[in-house]
Automatic annotation (TrEMBL):
GO terms for molecular function: isomerase activity. Keywords: Isomerase. Transmembrane segments: none annotated. It holds the Pfam family AP_endonuc_2. InterPro entries: IolE/XylAMocC-like (IPR050312), Xyl_isomerase-like_sf (IPR036237), Xyl_isomerase-like_TIM-brl (IPR013022). Residues 23-272 form the Xylose isomerase-like TIM barrel domain. This is Sugar phosphate isomerase/epimerase. The keyword Ion transport does not apply. It comes from the Bacteria.
């Protein structure tokens, strides 16, 4: 399994100097990246790199960076056709949604199928990235499992964020086994030893109550996040299970950090190098 980086981890540096930041990422040794794009932001037509597809491809090739995925917001696929066209031109194999915050999240599976059809039209795959709210229960079933059961396996795949799965009270290894051949990417960060709160969010929130973006934000504290290898999560166990299943990439995604973003991703890189069963090239 190869190690990569979700560029969201250095989003503030990207906003200030996208080319310089990508060079720092490459020089540090990250060769596989996943981009992100917020259509309501200034990169609405450039999808995370601040340049058109032709120029982006030239820059990425020059830096030796391979894009292995791309996050699109929101879940409803308005604008997704153009997004897929851009990434297909870059030669990216898959794009996905970085999560959804609607209170009626349990009704969103049809949108995932539609997004999958749009991506497939461009010859690429579509995947969904979880946070913690997908592990609420509706009628005795996790929403994330409903997404699995109610979507076409030929159209919708999954990217598992082990941090948020662990925060839901579920062992990420069990979820890897559940999603198995529909699991195409992993996200990894760590839970802080001194977080000042329980690992499992549902120890303080009701698992049956819809979670708004506001409630989620109130429970997304910088103090809970740690760089890889500095917290309490059994990351080697996650790597071992992912390799058993055949997940090709594990991507650092540092949602929040007390450190400078560049220092943060370097700290995690140094920790990743100590784990077994991973590759960089």
């Amino acid at each position: 399994m190869k190690v990569g980086l979700q560029i969201y981890s250095v989003r503030n540096h990207m906003n200030e100097d996208p080319l310089g930041t990508l060079k720092k990422v490459s020089d540090m040794g990250y060769k596989y990246i996943e981009s992100y794009s917020h259509p309501e932001g200034k990169d609405v037509k450039t999808f995370g790199f601040g340049m058109d597809a032709k120029d982006a491809k030239a820059v990425l090739d020059d830096l030796g960076l391979k894009v292995v995925g791309a996050h699109f917001y929101p879940l409803i696929p308005e604008g997704l056709d153009e997004f897929c066209e851009y990434y297909a031109e870059l030669g990216v194999p898959q794009v996905g949604c970085g999560g959804t915050w609607e209170l009626d999240i349990e009704t969103k599976a049809p949108y995932l199928n539609e997004a999958g059809r749009i991506a497939k039209k461009h010859g690429i795959r579509y995947y969904y990235h979880n946070h913690v709210q997908e592990y609420r229960e509706v009628d005795g079933e996790y929403i994330q499992h409903r997404f699995y059961n109610e979507t076409d396996p030929e159209l919708v795949y999954f990217e598992l964020d082990t941090f948020w799965v662990a925060r839901s009270g579920i062992d990420p290894r069990d979820e890897m086994e559940f999603f198995k051949d529909r699991l195409v990417l992993l996200h990894q960060k760590d839970f802080a030893k001194d977080a000042g709160e329980p690992l499992v969010i549902f120890e303080k929130l009701d698992r049956q109550t819809p979670m708004s973006g506001e409630v989620y934000g109130q429970n997304k504290r910088v103090e809970a996040f740690a760089e890889v290898g500095t917290g309490i999560l059994p990351i080697q166990d996650y790597i071992d299970k992912a390799n058993e299943i055949g997940v090709p990439y594990i991507l650092l995604e540092q949602d929040l950090t007390k450190m400078d973003e560049i220092d943060s991703i370097e700290t995690s890189m140094n920790a990743f190098k100590k784990f077994k069963g991973i590759e960089w090239d």
